[in-house]
Each structure stands twice: as C-alpha cells, then as structure tokens.
C-alpha cells in the first residue's frame, strides 16, 4: 500500500456531517407539509429512534471498518445475493436522495428568485456536484467544509431565532397549537383526511 495524504479531522467531519445536516435542512420542510403542527414530535420520534440505534451503528462500523457500508456488513452476515440487493437499493437511495436534495434546494431558491426553472437548475446543480466528485475527494472536501460551515451556521441561527421568538412572544405557537389543522395525505393514490394518525 502506498501512503495517502490524510484529509484531516475537519475535512472528514465535513464530508460525513453534510450527509446528516443537509437532511435536517430539507426534511423539516417536507415533514411540516405532511404533519402540520405535529412535525416537531414526528422529527423528535425519528431522532429518538436513531439515538437508540447508535450503538448498533457504532458496533457495526467498529467491527468492519472498511469501505462498502451496508454491502460490506451484509456480506459478512448474510449471503452474497442479499448483500448485492442491499447494495443496489443503497445506490438507488443515494440517487433519489441527491435528486430530492437538489430539487428541495432549487425550490427554496425559487422563493427568492421566482424566474428559476426548477428542472433545469436541479440538473445543473447535480451536474456541478458530479463534476466536483470527478475532480477527487481532496478538492471536493474543501467545498464540503464550506457547505458544512454554512449548514451548521444556518441550523444554529434557525434554532436561536426560533427560541428567541418563542421566549419573546409565544402567542403564535399557542395559536397554532389550539387551531391546529392537519394536511390531507395521499397514500397509495388515496387521499386520507388529515389527522393525528396521518401526521
């Protein structure tokens, strides 16, 4: 093995952290659209489940500290066909996540620049990240660090602003809770009337 330059703690944290923090930024809007006023409880439930599974994740990564993620884990605990199916599903999941993330980003940007074409801009954004990945991990890690800092700053400002607003005037929160309406949800082509169960 030839020695490779290590990225360092900040760059590697940025690469891993962007995956988690970017999900927090776009998922909160999607969950709010579906769950309405109960979205904080839904997000807290997901966070609680992930917190309970942290030891399982940690043990699996410690036991098999190699590339491959779920494929490598299943390759060591199940049959090769099962691991191959999991790898294919993981790739599909990554592609879908990239498209959803890109579309969400452009949709948010469209609120500031209404003239944007969502489809064209999403394709352009995905192409830009593909080109960046093609350049190599060292080059893309610097961009990942900038995005990571932006994500952390945005989430910190959002949390601080929400807390300050709640402490200064909680009337909006109380009014939302008292006059809560749940959005209708489409499940398997059927429109279900919004309620606590659909949230």
Structure description:
- The protein has 199 residues and is mostly helical.
- It has one domain.
- It is built from eight helices and two strands.
- A hairpin with a 2-residue loop joins strand 1 and strand 2.
List key phrases describing it.
single chain, 199 residues, mainly alpha, two-stranded antiparallel sheet, 8 helices, 3% strand
Summarize the structure.
By secondary structure, this protein is mainly alpha-helical.
Q: Mind describing the biggest β-sheet?
A: 2 strands, antiparallel
Low-confidence segments, given as residue ranges, are none
Number of beta strands: 2
Give the domain tally: 1
- Percent strand: under 5%
Proportion in helices:
over 70%
DSSP summary: helix tally: 8
- The mean pLDDT is 81
Shape: globular
The first-to-last residue Cα distance is 52 Å
Spatial order of strands in the largest sheet: 1-2
GO molecular function: transmembrane transporter activity
Membrane topology: Multi-pass membrane protein
Subcellular location: Membrane
Protein name: Amino acid permease/ SLC12A domain-containing protein
